[in-house]
Design a protein that fits this description.
- With 209 residues, the chain is an alpha/beta fold.
- It is 43% helix and 22% strand.
- It has eight helices and ten strands.
- It has helices spanning 2-10, 43-57, 73-83, 124-135, 152-161, 171-180, 186-197, 199-208, and strands spanning 14-16, 22-23, 29-30, 32-34, 64-68, 87-90, 103-104, 112-120, 139-148, 165-170.
- The chain has a six-stranded mixed sheet, with helices on both faces. A two-stranded antiparallel sheet has the order 1-4. A two-stranded antiparallel ribbon has the order 2-3.
- Strand 8, helix 4 (124-135) and strand 9 (139-148) form a beta-alpha-beta unit.
- The longest helix has 15 residues, at 43-57.
- It starts with a helix and ends with a helix.
């Protein structure tokens, strides 16, 4: 998976800036930003990721691929097409018009489903999508992401929910490559690990400095 980590850094789908942190929509500061939608614009990178997703999903003997709206939909679509499986996607909430669907598409009760997400942070949105699928009669085999920040809150939320989640690339994988490529220093890696262990505290220290 090192090749995927290198690709994400090269096309700047993931960028690292511990000295000049990014501001998230919540107002929190973060030394890392991920936008895996960029991978769709690079066929070689896109295929690299889809190949890896197919490799980990094929042995699971699933019936349906589900994408989270909206960032998980393109990669889920490509995986479903490659595997010749039905595709559904899950909205963050039910529509306020028409049939009021939260899940777009159809599957049979008892169908084994993999949920595809582009990024795992706290895992809340992925877990909500998985819950919606199970409430509709599906069996969520696991949540599969491209990249994970590996936050402690993710592990807690997964434990509470009973779902399993994996990512092709973790933060540690990415940082190993970033150091070897001299994108960041070892000192900056320590700062990123501090953020992973306590994102809120890290953000508050940055805002107060």
């Amino acid at each position: 998976m090192r090749q995927i980590a290198e690709a994400l850094l090269q096309i700047e789908a993931v960028t690292l800036s511990p000295e000049n942190p990014y501001t998230w929509s919540s107002g929190m500061r973060s030394p890392i930003y991920c936008d895996n939608r960029l991978t769709l614009s690079y066929p070689d990178v896109r295929n690299l990721i889809i190949d890896a997703l197919v490799e980990v999903i094929r042995p699971l003997d699933v019936d349906v691929i589900a994408g989270t709206a909206t960032a998980g939909i393109p990669h889920a679509t490509l995986v479903a097409d490659r595997l010749g499986l039905p595709l559904v996607y899950v909205r963050s909430s039910a529509k306020g018009h028409g049939k009021g669907n939260q899940i777009e598409g159809r599957f049979e009760s008892g169908a084994r489903v993999v949920v595809i997400e582009d990024l795992l942070s706290t895992g809340s949105s992925s877990i909500e999508a998985a819950k919606a699928i199970e409430e509709a009669g599906g069996e969520v085999v696991k949540i599969q992401a491209i990249f994970s920040y590996s936050l402690s809150r993710l592990a807690i939320n997964l434990l509470d929910s009973g779902f399993t989640a994996h990512a092709l690339i973790t933060l540690s994988d990415l940082l190993d490559v970033a150091v070897k490529k001299r994108i960041i220093s070892k000192e900056e890696v320590a700062s990123l690990h501090d953020w992973r262990n306590d994102p809120t505290g890290w953000s508050e220290r940055v805002l107060s400095s």
